[in-house]
Amino acid sequence: MLQNKTLNVPQHVAIIMDGNGRWAKQKGRMRIFGHKNGVRAVQEAVRYATKMGVRVLTLYAFSSENWNRPAKEVSALMLLFMQALEKQSHELHKNNIRLKIIGDRSRFSEKLQNKIKQVEKLTENNTALVLNVAANYGGRWDILQAAKKLAIAYDGGEVALDNVTEDDFQKYLVTENAPPVDLLIRTSGEQRLSNFLLWQAAYAELFFTDVLWPDFTEQVFHQAVINFQQRERRFGGS
Ligand code: FPP
Which amino acid positions bind Mg(2+), per UniProt (predicted)? Predict the structure, then answer.
């Protein structure tokens, strides 16, 4: 196993967790069965990231477009988030992990919004890993909400536009002070960004695997990290 202290471990890893539906279908089960098994893969990813010394792990759990799925699937997913928050919050806290739900929460039930606030408060001072769960998130929405916040600050005379740098702008994004995404993983063979972290992943190394999300393990994550470490990153330089 590589050691994080001496080797180049990605500081910020983002994952598009894809393929739950197909995994369930292969087994002749309902899609929600795939999502339920996806929760186990989330635990596996979090465990590995913590062990390797990744600072920020951002998971795409529910995109703004996912509301277009059948109502039954959407409500089952909401229930699953609620149950995962209830079951996992103490485990996360015990492991010194800070949980943040990033995205537009206004469409979530009041009960879910309150639960989110409670878990975020419980874990806010934890330092081992920041776990961002993107829920009702879209990259364009994120950039737009940041631009609106900047406009409000400008209106209030708090900023002078001429001096606003990319670094300043970044702080208005929902990921706030997270370092840029170094490694972005997508499972299930699809090779798209799907409106995830558009600003933050500008220079991310991309890793695609055919593994369906419920089958994602520490070994697959490790393979992605090894692959990342073999890449030469130039950030537009030569
Ligand atoms: C993509 O598979 C997966 C989702 C849209 C939901 C992700 C949710 C989880 C992994 C469970 C809970 C997560 C947390 C953070 C507690 P898909 O349904 O698009 O699969 P398909 O492409 O095969 O149809």
Answer: 18, 205
State the Cα–Cα distance between residues 9 and 50, nearest whole angstrom: 11
Q: Cβ < 6 Å from ligand 1: which residues?
A: 17-22, 31, 35, 38-39, 42, 59, 61, 66, 80-81, 84, 133, 188, 213
- Residue 44 belongs to a domain with what CATH number? 3.40.1180.10
Write the pLDDT tens digit of every residue in 100-121. Answer: 999 999 989 999 999 999 999 9
Q: Domain residues for 69?
A: 12-137+179-230
Atom 4 in ligand 1: residue holding the nearest Cα: 61
Query: Which two tokens mark 161?
Result: 């536009």
Residue 55, marked binder? no
Domain membership flag for residue 210: yes
Residues 36-53: pLDDT tens digits? 999 999 999 999 999 999
Q: Please state the pTM of the whole predicted model.
A: 0.94
215 part of the active site: no
Burial state string for 66-90 with b = 16 or more CB within 10 A and e = fewer than 16:
beeeeeeeeebbbebbbebbeebbe
